[in-house]
Amino acid sequence: MMLVFTFALGRKKDQMLIILLIGAVILTFIRPEYSLTLLLSIIVVSFYVLYQYLTYQHFKYPIIITLLIASFLLIKYNPTDGQRSSIAFCQHYAYSLFQFDLWKEDPWSYCELAMSKDFGSAKTISEALIANPSKFLGHVVRNILILPKELGSLLIPFFIGEPGNNTVPVQVAAYSVILIVLFWFIGFFFSLYQGQRNLLQKCFVLIYAMPVLVSTILIYPRPHYLLMVVPFLLIFGIQNLREKFGLLRYKAKFSFPIKTILVASILIYVTPWRLSGKSGLTIPEGQAGIHGKGLCTSVDNLNFLNHLNFENREMVLLSNLGFISTFLPKDMRVYHHFDKNSNFDEFILRNKINLVWINSALLNDLNFRNDSEFKKLVIGKSKGWKRMNIPNCPNDFLLFNF
């Protein structure tokens, strides 16, 4: 995003719009939600071209060609998946309830129950809003309340405070950024009213930030959402403060690309690999360096399952590890925890399951925790079942029956 603006700003208006359109196309095929950016970009550029035509201004054909290509790609190859956004809303709606002790079940597995309880048969975000506006508004309010903590944990270096703790440094960092960004928005709306210069540029800053802002408020302020837009808005917000109040003045007048490179270099250096405890450009070696020692990762799980050897016997696994079939041997079949629709023994026998991955999430799962046959299996009283410990995953174990 910053690269797009680095190349776009400081150029003639037609050239700037062409670069911003191309950037929107590229971002759309990196993250599907940026199809909103592409759509809004096409609308703004279309009005710009129409205005030039109606006022008899000379305009160049490259911008029209770029506009037509971008429109064709949005219509023909739009990567937006409505089901994906619906699932994300469902899971994060249940997760926000869970964080405020309003939902006791696993939010990732049983979000449909939370949705049906509050929104009936609604499946999409718009249907949920129509079905129960007050519950939907409650979800938005919870996201706003969660935002400072999530934002602060993204900003605070490892040597100041723990990412998950709502400490004073976390709050100071988060609210400082929020105030700077809000000030930018206030300046933007004043620009709309007064018709100030660089209005088109400011419109595109908002357009490029829009997908993340919508996702943050309507779905959840996840750090990887915020990471895409916070540095972007922060740079323009600080620039706005400098222009309005004469703050942070310096004698050297650098071009926008030079400023971007300087800011990006600083961000790269001070952004830590939190769990490895190192700042700078050093990349930790191995999974332990990235995820932390003793933390069971998906890579650990998959490595273990891929190295199982039961003398060419058919392996049928029951787990709540997600959709991992693609990464497992072709002869291993997988059933998910939410596939269970009967008592445990009947489910196991009917599907010929001979491997069960046990972890705390499965033990607390609504479908399993009250099943007496499952409890019997876990404590080792089911005939024929044996236990196998899992390297690097001390709280998980595998039960097998061969």
TrEMBL record:
Signal peptide: none
TM helices/strands, residue ranges: 15-30, 37-53, 59-77, 172-192, 199-219, 225-242, 254-275
Assigned keywords, A-Z: Membrane, Transmembrane, Transmembrane helix
Official protein name in the record: Glycosyltransferase RgtA/B/C/D-like domain-containing protein
Organism lineage: Bacteria, Pseudomonadati, Spirochaetota, Spirochaetia, Leptospirales
